[in-house]
Amino acid sequence: MQNQKGNITLIIVGIAMLLIIGGGVGYFIIEKSIQKEEQKIVQQNQSKEEVKQKQEPQVYINYRDVYYINETGNKKIIAQSIKQSKNSDGLEYVKASLSPNKKFIMLGVLGWESVSVYIYDIDTGNIYNTKQSSSSFGNWLSDSRLQIIGECGMGISCGKFESINNIEPWNLKEIKDETGLENL
Questions:
Q1: Which among 113, 97, 115 has a CA at the least distance from the CA of 105?
Q2: 88-99 burial, b if ≥16 CB within 10 A, otherwise e?
Q3: First to last CA, the chain
Q4: Dihedral, CA of residue 132, residue 140, residue 145 and residue 117, to nearest 10
Q5: Digits of tens for pLDDT over the chain (184 positions)?
Q6: Phi, psi (5° rounding) for residue 49?
Q7: The dihedral of CA 172, 173, 178, 182: what is its sign?
Q8: Per residue in 17-30, is it b (16+ CB within 10 Å) or e — as a string?
Q9: In which domain, by residue range, is 1 found?
Q10: Spatial separation of the C-alpha atoms in residues 182 and 17, rounded to whole Å
Q11: Around Cβ 105, how many Cβ atoms within 10 Å?
């Protein structure tokens, strides 16, 4: 009988040990599983954040005001049109274009007989006047310099003008053709 009690005790102790060991293994497996799920969630959130950060900057005009949306999706008004009044000729933005290097925005202003071109520096928030009036708005060159071609007329700059560099694209110079004459 004592032998049977000893065997039963051994069996109970064995079962208890199996439960303890098995429970520990089970806990370990469940814990690892939870950690993997948490890692997946963190990676998904990071991926969503990276996608948000990789958004292409945009510029657009709404009711003659110019808006800029940066890479992270933040939107702001960068230029507001001014209505014509007795004291002001007004200022109406009708064209906005982002430079290829995404550092500047060309702003086209419609005047009485000509257009004026301004450059908004995204880093500083300053607006610079190119001081060239033309019959057409400028265009960005692939190296982020500006090009304006002006037709001759009253109050309009004649010729072809290009930015000196892409660091200050509002500084323009007149481009001469191969003969050295002004490019009209």
A1: 97
A2: eeebbbebbbbb
A3: 120
A4: 20
A5: 556 666 666 666 666 665 566 555 555 566 666 677 667 777 776 666 655 567 889 999 988 899 999 988 899 999 888 777 666 667 788 889 999 999 999 998 876 667 788 999 999 999 999 887 666 778 899 999 999 887 666 555 577 889 999 999 999 888 876 544 554 4
A6: -65, -40
A7: positive
A8: eeeeeeeeeeeeee
A9: 1-54
A10: 97
A11: 22
Tokens encoding 86: 């007795």
Global confidence as pTM: 0.64
Same domain, 33 and 121: no
* Integer Rg of the chain from CA: 35
Residue with the two structure tokens 């928030």: 125
Are both 79 and 105 inside the same structural domain?
Answer: yes
Q: Say whether both 32 and 93 belong to one domain.
A: no
Q: In the chain, where does DSSP find H-type helix?
A: 2-53
Instruction: Report the alpha-carbon distance of residue 15 to residue 77 in Å, rounded.
Output: 73
Residues 46 and 94 in one domain: no
Three-state SS at 63: coil
User: Is there a domain that residue 85 lies in?
Assistant: yes
- Element (H or E) spanning 109, and its range? strand 104-110
* Element holding 60 (H helix, E strand): strand 58-62
Would 137 be classed as within a structural domain?
A: yes
What is residue 4's three-state secondary structure? helix
